[in-house]
């Protein structure tokens, strides 16, 4: 029979519970699977099947709203809308956003807003191209949970030890602010 001192002991060998999120839980297996799907879809469809994904910084507003680059989503364009592809993988996107930008986004997990731009437009957005507008996307899209993971993919942004990351400044509507147009 265990003594009184041992009753609150927690073994260091205990197993951690699996992360929440099911087949899109933020773990290595799911991240690598979605990266493989992204690469396969991208090979066939090119940049037309890709969207660049940004998370809106909830601590900024007005004409100085910051949007942090989170990664890229690929989809089979004939069967999956951009909105459904993003919503299907929202757990991975939100977990990743809060991990790469813990100061700016970390405390807003579960409340982040996501926006998208056409694929491979990071350079255009950094140059404040007025033709490249961010579009808001709902995190819950009807039917997105039924989208097969094989038809969507994800390439998450990597931040170096310098921690700089990539962000752009837009209005709250996702357009280039007037004071930034050359």
Report on this structure.
This protein is of the alpha+beta class. It is 23% helix and 19% strand. It is built from four helices and six strands, in the order αββααβαβββ. The chain has helices at residues 28-45, 82-88, 90-100, 122-126; strands spanning 50-56, 65-75, 114-118, 135-137, 152-156, 167-170. Strands 1, 2, 3, 4, 5 and 6 form a six-stranded antiparallel β-sheet that branches. Strand 1 (50-56) and strand 2 (65-75) form a beta hairpin. It is globular and about 75 Å long. The N and C termini lie far apart (78 Å). The model has no long low-confidence stretch (mean pLDDT 91).
Helix count equals: 4
Q: Main sheet, how many strands, which sense, barrel?
A: 6 strands, antiparallel
Mean pLDDT: 91
Number of strands: 6
From the spread of the alpha carbons, the general shape counts as globular
Strand-residue fraction? 15-25%
Concise structural overview:
The protein contains 4 helices and 6 strands, in the order αββααβαβββ.
Search tags:
182 residues; alpha+beta; 4 helices; 19% strand
Explain the layout of strands and helices.
Elements: H1 28-45, E1 50-56, E2 65-75, H2 82-88, H3 90-100, E3 114-118, H4 122-126, E4 135-137, E5 152-156, E6 167-170
Antiparallel strand pairs: 1-2, 1-3, 2-5, 2-6, 3-4
